[in-house]
Write a structure and sequence with these properties.
- The protein is of the alpha+beta class.
- It is built from three helices and five strands.
- A three-stranded antiparallel β-sheet has the order 3-2-5, covered by helices on one side.
- The protein is globular and about 30 Å long.
- The mean pLDDT is about 95.
Length: about 110
């Protein structure tokens, strides 16, 4: 089992989870974070820290899409191991549905 970040993180990119991760397995893209599954030790401390419930177990229904995405982008994006200020407009995106299709950005530019 591992934990994964889903599309609820997009445009919110709160980093409370990063601060508590004992193995620094979070990676940062332009508008979201991902977890590197091979580095995650399944401790679960990040999951309750996410204010938008964007962190899920890979055993949840529909998690295979997020496993593939987290694996891919954790190999490309830089590691993040310190909490940062969230995007200014993050509150307005908190409850938006289908954020992956609408707002996902693949790279850092």
């Amino acid at each position: 089992m591992t934990y994964l970040v889903n599309d609820k993180c997009i445009k919110c990119k709160l980093t409370d989870c990063v601060e508590v991760c004992p193995v620094d397995c979070f990676y940062e893209g332009k508008n979201m974070l991902v977890i590197k599954p091979d580095e995650c030790i399944d401790c679960g401390v990040c999951e309750p820290e996410c204010p938008v419930n964007a962190i899920v177990s890979d055993t949840e229904d529909g998690s295979s899409k997020w496993l593939e995405m987290n694996t891919k982008y954790s190999e490309i994006w830089p590691n993040i191991n310190k909490k940062k200020d969230p995007p200014e407009d993050h509150e307005k995106f908190k409850d938006v549905e289908n954020k992956y299709e609408k707002y996902f950005k693949e790279n850092l530019e």
